[in-house]
Amino acid sequence: MKRLAFLFSAIVLAVLLWQLAGRIFTSGSGRQEVTLSGNIEAHQSVLSFTEVQAPVVYLPFDEGKWIEAGTVLAKVDDRSYRRQLMIDSTNLQVARKQEEVNRSSLLAALDTVKSDRFDLAQKKRDDALAQAQKNAGAVSMQASDLAHTAALQSEANLEHDMALVSLARNSIALARASVSAARAKVDLDKVTLSRTELRAPFSGVLAVREAELGELAGPGVAIFTLDDLDHVWLRAYVNEQNLGQIRLGEEAQIRTDTYPGKIYHGRIGFISPEAEFTPKTVETHAERVTLVYRIRIDIDNPTHELLPGMPANAVIALLPPGK
């Protein structure tokens, strides 16, 4: 009796491993092929708001909806972000006005310096004439001293006004920096405001809707999971015996029960370098301790017929051992 039970268990184990790791058969052309079973998977993106935190006020789509790239999937309350943009836009206008005022001050200072130069030139001529007349005895020493003092005062006024010109130029540079900072803040506000809308990064199917209207959204809070049906693959497992007979980039033929008789074309895009236990979905201990290698078969899906979760079989030609 024990012997029969052991024999029955061995048969069941062999059948399970045959289903899991592939079935080898010889095609009509004489080459060996292996059939692997698995489920269709797709590239997924978990979509969430970035840089903003506010309640969700717009959420028009449910799970299973086909979405075109760029579609607005959700919005959050943007009133506080709009107010911030308005405040910073006003600050930018103030900074620009201040730059205009500083430019006007510079022009006025330059005009003053120009006038000072003319005045200094005249005062120097008057001083030279007074000195000559004093030497000739035509004017008194006091008159000569007054002319010289006037020349010195005019020179001091020129130096003072030239310092004001330098100060005005520095004020303009500071105003320009303030304008640049204010403009950058406004640009950042606009980017942040654009983040209050969540758009689809690519065309696909909404696989999961995580949020509801009124919920607080923010960085890291999932709103949708979007499946990219342009990039699907089949996850399957191959045993060690066949591992050396398949190659990256090798073609595979995919069939599904949903579309019987139709063949989809794929290529092996990944072969795990490490063995692992069979998937957790296998419940028997005997199967769980069996080591297999995970592979990914990328599949062309232009019509989007293949959907995540759909069971499928892949037929792969085996290379001769040692090739």
Q: How many helices in DSSP terms?
A: 5
- Our measurement of the CA-to-CA distance between the termini, rounded to an integer number of angstroms, reads 46 Å
Q: How many domains is the backbone divided into?
A: 2
CATH superfamily grouping of the largest domain:
Efflux pump adaptor protein, beta barrel domain
Give a short summary of the structure.
By secondary structure, the chain is of the alpha+beta class. It is built from five helices and 14 strands.
Q: Can you describe what's shown?
A:
By secondary structure, the protein is of the alpha+beta class. The chain folds into two domains: 20-77 and 204-317, Elongation Factor Tu (Ef-tu), domain 3, CATH 2.40.30.170; 80-194. It contains five helices and 14 strands. The chain has helices spanning 2-21, 79-136, 141-194, 240-243, 285-288, and strands at 23-26, 32-48, 54-58, 66-67, 72-76, 197-199, 204-209, 216-217, 222-238, 251-256, 264-271, 276-277, 291-299, 311-317. A six-stranded antiparallel beta barrel has the order 2-9-13-11-10-14. A four-stranded antiparallel beta sheet has the order 6-5-3-8, with no helix packed on it. A hairpin with a 7-residue loop joins strand 10 (251-256) and strand 11. Helix 2 packs antiparallel against helix 3. The chain is elongated. Residues 1-21 and 282-286 have low confidence and may be disordered.
